Amino acid sequence: MRKNKNESLFRRLSPQAWMALGFISCILTGTCLLLLPISSSGTRELGVVDMLFMATSATCVTGLSVIEVAKDLSFFGQLVVLVMIQLGGLGITTLGTFLLVLVGRRLSIQNEFVLMDAYGVGEVQGVRSLLRWSFSFTLLFEGIGAALLTWRYLVIAQAHGAVMPLNEAIYYAIFHSVSAFCNAGFSLHPDSLVRFQNDPFYLPIIDVLIVLGGLGFLVLYNLVTIKWWRRDLRARGRIALHTKIVVMATAGLLVFGSAMIGLYEWNNTLSGMPLLQKINCAIFHGITPRTAGFNALPMVEISEGARYLTGMLMLIGGSPGSAAGGMKTTTLVVLGMTILAMCRGRSETVIFSRTVTQAIVREAIVICLLTLLVIVVAYGVLLSTESPLPLGAPEKLLFETISATATVGLSIDYTSNLSVWGRCVIIVCMYLGRLGPIVIAMLIGKDFVKQRIRYPQEEIVVG
Question: CA torsion sign, 79 to 85 to 90 to 96?
Fold first, then answer.
């Protein structure tokens, strides 16, 4: 009887609940593995909260860290972090379902709904194909990135008159390739990627991996499956509205962010650099806030304007169905076009000659408001847990809160200064930010049902 009740309970769990439980399971498993003596290098004592923080940051592909990964963790501990990054990037449910498909088992309706939520797929048809493509994309891009980074590590070491063992170069390359494609931002270097700011190839390789990982598998799937060589438009296939919005928004934010970072930092952290190096670093810092978390410029030295811009870019984040966090580019575009339509006196939101449904507009508004609500509440709690605060700390706390909620990982060197309660707050922010505000809303609320009773309408004054 008890077994039947448990089975009935599991069947009643929503896809969003399965996603939440999947990430919690991975976080707790990772925490236990990191607490093992074999995971520590012995340089310092690692507490439970510290390892919970690291496991959450890795699984939620955030990149915030209260320890030095290369110094405080052993090789085994670093591998645990790397595996959690990969699982978090692909998605626990996605990887598990892929294994079922690989061995020929039927894809359940429950798993199909989980994948639809993860990738933003509106139709079940083609989910298996999308799943195989997503895993192939990950292995392909991470593999190419690792090969190119291995080459750079060997060349850079040789240029400095040192000899880097091939196996060490491969390991460092794989770690940073996976971290970049999954938009995690974890680095084995204590200064993140500052040491590579004068290398003309290293940062661009990371740039490409971050952008590809932040586009989302649905966009990559759509672009790759189009038969561009066909003249017949019906046989060629079409670029979905979602793909158009993601590509245009990503390109626009990349250009805008890079240009503004260049303007803010031209005579500050970029001062004294050759022109090409300035452009290289400006482009990198226009990309990494959405939501990779690497930095090639010292974050404590960037100007106030650059910090503000970085915070806004972190808040926007990447695109749906990707490893990136934030509100997502599509949410920003839908909200912007809805405001534009209202200013023009139009009742419908139109993008690229396509009408966006009211349900999508409503979701975009909810996502935006819930994201801001999490940040405001978490920041208020941090102001209490970290009191009394030294001069300049409130600004750093706000930056930390946005970075955690958007699962970015950039920090103004303040993460390790957080108290135990402050770290717990950041852990919650990273978890909620990874799942997404709309998933949380569906978890705490009921599924949308068609109302049988409609109440009388009455006007109220807003604004």
Answer: positive
Is residue 143, in this structure, part of any structural domain at all?
yes
Number of domains in the chain: 1
Residue 142 in any domain: the answer is yes
Least confident of 30-34, 125-129, 380-384, 409-413: 125-129
Q: Which burial class, exposed, middle or buried, applies to 232 when counting CB atoms under 10 A from its CB (0-12, 13-18, 19+)?
A: exposed
Helix or strand run (H / E) with residue 355: strand 354-356
The domain of 134 spans 13-443
Angle between helices 358-385 and 329-343 (to 10 degrees): 120
Q: What is the rounded distance in angstroms from the CA atom of residue 293 to the CA atom of residue 411?
A: 8
**3-class secondary structure, 452:** coil
Question: Is residue 19 situated within a structural domain?
Answer: yes
CA separation for the pair 80, 341 (Å, rounded): 49
With a cut of 70, say whether residue 314 has pLDDT above it: yes
Q: What is the pLDDT of residues 331-341, one digit of tens each?
A: 999 999 999 99
The answer to whether 345 and 357 are in contact (CB under 8 A) is no
Residue 1 pLDDT more than 70? no
Kindly state whether residue 449 falls inside one of the protein's structural domains.
Answer: no
DSSP string, 37-85: GGGB-SSS---HHHHHHHHHHHHTT----SS-HHHHB-HHHHHHHHHHH
CA 266, 269, 274 angle in degrees (round to 5)? 65
For Cα atoms 4, 10, 14, give the angle at the middle one, nearest 5 degrees.
150
Instruction: Convert the pLDDT of each residue in 229-258 to its tens digit.
Output: 777 666 667 788 888 999 999 999 999 999
For the chain, the distance separating the N- and C-terminal CA atoms, rounded to the nearest angstrom, is 56
